[in-house]
Amino acid sequence: MAVAAVGRGASCHAVARALECATSTVVSAVRRYREGGRQELRDRRENNGRAKVDERFRERLVRVLAGTPEDWGWCRPTWTRELLCQELARRGLVRVSVATMGRTLASLGARLKAAKPIVECPWPGWKRRRRLHAVRCLEVYGPSTEPVLHVDEVDIHLNPKVGRDWCMPGHRRVVVTPGNNQKRYLAGALNVRTGKLTWVEGRSKASALFIQLLWRLASAYRRARRIHLVLDNASVHSSKKTRKVLAHLGRRFVLHFLPPYCPQGNRIERVWLDLHANVTRNHRCRTMDRLLARVHAYLAARSAQRSASPSLRRADPRRTA
């Protein structure tokens, strides 16, 4: 196509732009045609031999990516394309170029991701699994008249949580921060059977916030003789003030503590992640009252619709300021 277009009088640059290829590619094709005719236009990659990247190569690459370089004896904590080429060559596979390794990684769906820091649970594995299994059995096989609620607290900052967003090349999202940060705290409870959310707001993450939630739950579930709460080991959940209120409520609440550093066992953690994604990340609220109004609106809509993103609707332009 390039040779035919140039033969009709078009310039190499115009042909390259029309065919969406490099100008050098058009120039090379025309030169080869003038020197050797049609024979020189044949694809010469047919003599390259068998493809270097086959299924065996891909399987080994996936296996290597499952670990870190230190797992395989290298003095480096993260992978590079060059190091992956060396590791696969060390395993007896064919050595490929860095560009080929990059295309192979893209074909596998591999991409650079930020590491997720966690704190490992100090309990033995069997003990941790047994506690989580007991909580799961309570949710599935517990009496229907005794609600099971996952409880946790979350911080709301006026300074927005900065996160990624889609932008055009050369542009970057700008988020104006108020400067002087303000904080509010929410204590929430998620009913794992109905999806109902119950939450309270406070100015500090102290025992008073959790006690306020207990009174709200006692009023919301007044017909339940017993309410099971699944929560972490925060001090506010077992303080003297909390134990006093629990005794005053007639021991209607039964606390089931999760293993230490086990947030994945608490389902309401997912609610807080969705709250940040839909409301607080990159927000542009100038006042805490405006931000809290959006937080409460999102939680109410999520509780009613049981959807992670109930706020996917057009905002009222009169209320976005």
TrEMBL record:
Pfam family, one: DDE_3
Record's protein name: IS630 family transposase
Boundaries of every Tc1-like transposase DDE domain copy: 148-291
Species classification: Bacteria, Pseudomonadati, Myxococcota, Myxococcia, Myxococcales
NCBIfam families found in the cross-reference section: transpos_IS630 (NF033545)
